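INTERNAL AUDIT FORM
Audit reference: QA-55
Scope: verify that the stored structure record matches its stored sequence.
Auditor: D.O.
Record contents follow.
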Amino acid sequence: MRKSLTIIVALLIGSTAAFAQKGWNIGVQGTGLISINENSFSYYDAKRGEKNFTWQAGLSVGYDFEKFWGLRLMAEFGNNNGGFNIKETADQAFRPFHFKSIDIFADAMLNLRIITGKPDGFFQPKVYFGVGYGYTNWFKNDFEGVHPWQEVTSPNHNFGMRIGAQFELKFCPEVGIYADVCAEGFTDRYNGLFPSKEDKEAVKGYPGFPFDGKIKFSGGLLFHIPAKK
């Protein structure tokens, strides 16, 4: 046990020292996203699946430490789509809506060049895992009237988790362009619809997956600021 603790402490000290030797990076990105929630299928049933593809923009600040590890803080503002219930509604009409979101994530980054043992290079592939916070508000119906028995809640505060991959082409030590793909999951009020206990008991399978989510495809610029030695 004592030996394990010694190893852990040594690793932490080594990581701290390496952290001071590396540098900051600042990223800007534009994103295409697909919303995934209780009634996302309604877009495809209504032959309007392309309308479920929307946009998001983000700004990140990160720090590279060790040779292959880093941390990143990212804030994003986006437009999301949602849909009211169809299957258990008498007229079974398609009733879409959209809303805005502000998401903040802290990501732990791993450079896959760790496999080769060579951190530097033109191509920088990374994977990451993050936890964060999602705020949703500014809901607006994209149809006339209201849903017979459902309404959205607003504003909503949600816990989020995500996993993704980033692929950077580093043209020089200071600047690179990158592509990013990730899957995000949020607690179930993210899209403003949260099945009640009565909903769950009345209709088997109605609540669906107990999270709301996004699939995101991003592209952006990354500016590197090396740490002073």
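Auditor finding: record pair retrieved intact. Residues 1-21 have pLDDT under 50 and may be disordered.
Action required: none
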